[in-house]
Amino acid sequence: MSIPDFQSMMLPFLQLLADGKERFHKDILAELADKLGLSEEQQNLRHEKSGVNILSNNITWVEIYLFKANLISKPKRACFLITEAGKSLLLEKPAIINIRLLKERYPSVTQWLRTRIKGVENGSGDDKSEFLVKPPEELLENAHAIICADLAQELLEQVKSTHWRFFERIVVDLLTKMGYGGSRRDAGKVVGKSGDNGIDGVINEDKLGLDIVYIQAQKYSDPITISQVRDFAGALLAKKARKGVFITTSTFPKSAEEFVAQIEPKVILIDGQRLAQLMIEYNVGVAVKNVYEVKRIDSDYFDENEYC
Length: 308
Known about the structure:
The chain is of the alpha/beta class. The chain has 2 domains: 6-134, Winged helix-like DNA-binding domain superfamily/Winged helix DNA-binding domain (Arc Repressor Mutant, subunit A, Orthogonal Bundle); 151-281, RNA polymerase, Rpb5, N-terminal domain (Dna-directed Rna Polymerases I, Ii, And Iii 27 Kd Polypeptide, Chain: A, domain 1). The protein contains 14 helices and 7 strands. The chain has helices at residues 10-16, 25-35, 40-43, 54-68, 84-91, 99-105, 107-113, 130-133, 136-160, 164-177, 184-188, 226-238, 254-260, 272-281; strands spanning 23-24, 72-76, 79-82, 201-204, 212-218, 243-248, 266-270. Helix 12 links the parallel strand 5 (212-218) and strand 6. The two termini are 45 Å apart.
């Protein structure tokens, strides 16, 4: 479920301030959500990585653009008021207010954008460029997703090229990092040892060994068949086991996913793509290259009330 992009909010935002009253960001947030008919779920949507509220972040960027165009002023912190220029623009009854209009009408916006995207100053900037139409936080998340997708593909190819015994080590390291098996030494004692009727090994679900998880790990190029999954489920039943994980570098057919969704014991299928994603998430076989910190103004620091 998505919400309108921040350009779509520019006109409703300015119309909201048309009565000439000062409004704080939090009040604008509530009134715009009602004006746009956004559900509570939409209002609470957050960026997956940063955890930033999407609606609040979009409105923040509306405030920035309109302020740069001198269509609104900031009489106090996090408080906004329409200017005479903003009122004049509304009198023209524009069908839409977007970055293109702001660039054409207000040189201060173009001047500011020169610091945001190369090419704007000489007129070669594309109005549809992601650098213009998306907030930086969203750009960072999109770029991070692309990097992770490329890394996952490269990582999976690397895993496929390893010896099957090293693949067992990868499985052990991953499960241990995920909190299973206690220590790596304890986990390594059991995984890959049994070879019992479709079960490659067992691992403790917790450090105390209160429950165990049965493992099937297959380094295959060809897709896993439904019969292999059924054999694994049957082996679990024979052991009176309640939980099992089938890990492969390959893929599972849809029929296998449907099958494990309907049976007891509980069986989790981890295909190659999911395996690579988990390895990235838990730092198995990968290392952190760069860390970028995104900082914001600390409003509490600038609270002057205690000094007044």
